[in-house]
Amino acid sequence: MGISLTAEINIIQRRPAISALIIAPYFPFGRIKIIGGTEMKIKNTEITEDIVGGIEKFPKYTTQLINLANQNAGGTRPKVVGQMSDLIQEFPEKTFAEWVVWYQQQKPNAVDNATAKVVDMIEKLKSAMDLIDEDLIRRWVKDLVHTKTYTGLKFQESILKRVADRMGKNYRTATPAEEAKGIDGFIGDGPVSIKPMTYKSKNMLQENIDSKIIFYDKVKDGIKVELDF
Hints:
The protein is about 45% helix and about 15% strand. By secondary structure, it is of the alpha+beta class. It has 2 domains: about 30-130, no CATH class; about 155-225, no CATH class. It has a 6-stranded mixed beta sheet with strand order 1-8-7-6-5-4. Strands 2-3 form a two-stranded antiparallel ribbon. Helix 2 packs across helix 6. The radius of gyration is 26 Å and the shape is elongated. The termini are close together.
């Protein structure tokens, strides 16, 4: 019977780009097809102008900082402003002005509550900015380029160590000759192979592996580990 555990192993994360939540009709169209097979691109700013009648303008870089603060604070999460995809479907009228009035009736405190959360986080970011200098930035770059890159590629040893600690045994990494046989290390006297979870679903276990297998899956805050023994 396999067991699973989550090892707190930090790895490089590729975070998605931050986008603002727009409390207005959604604009999911990157391109709109026109009859006859011709395509034309309509920008979100143009859609906003057509539907709302104007575009809110902000000073350069400010929206990036506000987006970051909002992401950290959760200011526009559904529990604060409501489930927007559901609300827009429930909206019984047609115009933007009517939408604003209707939304305020449904969620009278939402904008104020969201604003307060973001303002509080902005103040925290301002305090953090005072701590940032060239030395701190250099340390951050070195941590990313040196430490996180290395641990992101060499995490197998951490898996061996954590699993061995859990089992109360010693461990060692494999020699090049042992690696050539599909062995990544030893826990106690037993050879171990470390494979990604996708290895199981790709029908790759047919290859001849004499060692026990540890499966792993990179998750947001570390690595989830599953033992096949």
